[in-house]
Amino acid sequence: MVDLGLYNFIKNAKAQGKSKEEIFETLSKGGSNQELISEAYTAVETNKEPEVSKRTDAYGMPVTAIRKFFTADRPTLITAICGYYFITWLLLILQQVILYVMYSGMGGVSFAQYLTLNVVTIMMLAAFIGVVGIWFMKRVGLYLYTISQIGSIVYIGAQYMESGISFFDPQLLWGVSFAYLVPIVLIVVGFRYFKRMV
Quick check: 20 and 41 in contact, CB under 8 A? Predict the structure, then answer.
């Protein structure tokens, strides 16, 4: 298989008017194998594009799951907000584990029962999956995250109404608005770059 890095180097060097001898000399001094250089040079001469492995990117670098996670093509604002969420949720997961330990110690509640009763945890899980989707610029992630946030607002409103507090209470509205400021920004920014998502 033609070395993509050599191919691109030779192609650029020829475009700059460098001779075959100069190109071979430069690459040889850099430690490149003569056979690979010749193969890449022939590919450039015959205008034969090298096949790019699905495991490499346009620069011939290996695409690993970790590298893809950090280098996906996304706006900086989405990267920042999603990064904030990943850190926040790590702390929230630890909090939920602590709460589960406390509840199980008090009443012998099983983990399955705890998750079933804890609607907020389910909403958080859906939102987390949605944010991961947004991180990878997936429309389904934006949809899921938006639905989870609307669902959590409805759930919180219903809980307050059951307690006799109006959903339109100024203090409640202010609290909800402040708590959902970041989610609203993420949703707005997400739909702003909706066309870039797949």
Answer: yes
